[in-house]
Amino acid sequence: MGPALYNRYPLVYFDSGAYMEMAASLEPSFHRAIGYPILMKLSGWMISNWPIVLIQGLLVSLLSFRLVQLLTIKRHYWHHFFLVTVLSFSTSLSWYAAQLMPDIFTLLLALTAIIIVLEPVPSWKRIVAYSILLCTSIITHLSHIPMLLLVIILLAIISKVTSVNVPKQKLAFLSAPLVLAFLLTCSYNAIWGYGFRLSMASNVFITANLGEMGILKMYLDENCPESSIALCKIKDKLPLETGGYLWEADAPVSQHPGGWQAMNEECGPIVHDFLTKPRYLKWLVFASIKATIKQMSQIELGSGLQYTYADGSPPSWPMRSHYKLELNEYLVSVQNKDASHLPIDFFKILNYISLFLSMLILGWAVLTKKMDEKLALVLIVAFAFYFFNAAITGVLANVYERLQTRLLPLFPMIAILVLITKSKLFDQSSEPAE
């Protein structure tokens, strides 16, 4: 929680205002999951934003401690203290945990999945706790459902074709909350009259990203003479980036008389053609591979935090309407008085250094076969989450550092665990804690 305490208020991002507004109304959004707003409302009761940040930090710490317990033999508290301290000061971890955004739950989802895979024979209390945390993490962001599904499928394949064994019971353990989260999200949208579906704007987001990839223009050039889609009118001056399609005042979505719903329906045939017609599917495959590789390379800390969100910004509106008790605290925070006073540049350098050292340590451990089976499994699951996160967000949303850096702390975390388990502090005379 250090950055929030230094800032004197939880850090906010451009989208934080939308989540606060959703917390007040609990109405589904066309482009955001409802899980995080529900957590904000239940924790802070529309009075304070501090409880949700406290919960985020606490969950990171608890899961980190359990991971240390499962991978080390003794001195768990010292190992945990060292791990959390290093990660908080040298990675993006604390900057996400201290922020009013659901991105920290992507990391929590990955940590929970890793712990479930490692757990020997969990008690019923742990099963319930992990299931609740897993389901809660999944419903906070729409990308989490396909992400976890792909990880489960990969683990099942690895168990079949390699010596690494992930029992079917654990795959079922991971799958049950996934199915529940899917049903809850779709049912919630249906109750509000939006139909039993996961997202009400998937076609719009994919089409906007096709525009950023540069292949939408070629598609429109070939099909617009016979198509009545609104984008045909601006095909020669399409926005260059995804945000230009979605969020700008003159964006196609904003200008469409039917709004998000009508635009999503218009974009349906475009997405269908790119998924079913070989000519366009070929373009999409090549563009998706490039987008995934680019997204995996997004390691910039502090995305969106370098801006001031004072009066007139989207986050300021719900603060004035629903969080009046903390309005003054919000306005005089370091970020909103002068965002340049946040020490983001300094921590960017530490993030680069920690990532570089982590790659050296992990490379050394892999090449010299210093990793035991547990650590190797942790690294496989972590990399799977990192890769599938890049593929899903890079293809279905856009290439953007905020969406990828949220999982970067996984690698310094594993590197530290490698050092701990291979040091003299590691004593095999005791059994792992249950």
Task: Report the principal-axis shape.
Answer: globular
Number of domains: 2
Query: How many whole angstroms does the radius of gyration measure?
Result: 22 Å
* Total E-strand runs: 0
Order of helices and strands: HHHHHHHHHHHHHHHHHHHHHHH
Approximately how much helix is present in the residues? 55-70%
Description of the structure:
By secondary structure, this protein is mostly helical. It has two domains: 322 residues, no CATH class; 95 residues, no CATH class. 66% of the residues lie in helices and 0% in strands. Helix 3 packs across helix 4, helix 4 packs across helix 5 and helix 9 runs antiparallel to helix 10. The two termini are 28 Å apart.
Search tags:
disordered C terminus, globular, 434 residues
In short:
With 434 residues, the protein is mainly α.
Please give the structural blueprint.
Blueprint: H1 2-7, H2 16-25, H3 35-44, H4 50-71, H5 76-90, H6 93-97, H7 104-118, H8 124-138, H9 144-161, H10 168-191, H11 202-213, H12 216-223, H13 242-246, H14 252-255, H15 259-276, H16 278-296, H17 316-322, H18 327-331, H19 334-338, H20 344-367, H21 373-396, H22 401-405, H23 410-421
